[in-house]
Amino acid sequence: MDTQNIDQKQNESIAQNRRLVKILMKKVNFLRAVIYILVASSILVTILIVSISLFSPNFDNYFENIKNTLKAPQVSLYLSPNVANYKVGDEFNIDVMVDTKDNNVVVVAAYLSYSKEEMEAINIDLANSPFPFVAEKQIIAQDGKIKITIGKPTPGINSSAGKVATVRFRAIKKVNPTIENISFNFTQGSSLFSGVFIDDKQGTNALNIIGGAKIFIE
């Protein structure tokens, strides 16, 4: 084998090695870039988790709560009229209403507080209520409280203006209220206060909106 052929083969080998080194360097640079991205992403995720955990004590349920809130049924209880004017000695009616928001409702618990110094609750009328079963129908005058719990079997009722009950009051003292003086006792999700339970076979309390009344007495 002559010297020229040997030199040519050596040159080709060197060139091939250089190409291989370039390819390997490209791969190394690519892998470095990927590692940098992964490290940066990991740092950002860690910062996000720490930030959320600082602001949310129940971080384990944070995203689950968001998901449940977005898909949860929403039902409201309200009083009609929500603003009215009367004179001392007048008797007047306040209707307890439910807006089922296109859900089937089987039980309504309406717990009300009223200013016992300004008005007197006389009686609770369920004659025009679509709910035939009565579990509670009580006026607690010494505390200014009213408890009404009524129900209807499956499928219950579905209405934007279902009348739960009519409460009759007597105006006893002049007042110019700045806040509601007849209101619902309500803590969202609690079965100890007002609630509206839908026909989902799970007893879900879907009440999340309430509206009381301001009664002006001259």
Let me know the largest β-sheet.
Answer: 5 strands, mixed
CATH architectural arrangement of the largest domain: Sandwich
CATH topology (level 3) name of the largest domain: Immunoglobulin-like
Shape: elongated
Distance between the termini: 124 Å
Count, helices: 2
3D structure, described in words:
With 218 residues, this protein is α+β, with helices and mostly antiparallel strands. The protein has 2 domains: 63 residues; 145 residues, Immunoglobulin-like. Helices cover 29% and strands 35% of the residues. The strands form 3 sheets. Strands 5-8-3-1-11 form a 5-stranded mixed beta sheet, with no helix packed on it. The longest helix is centred in the N-terminal third of the chain and has 53 residues. It is elongated and about 130 Å long. About 14% of the residues have low confidence.
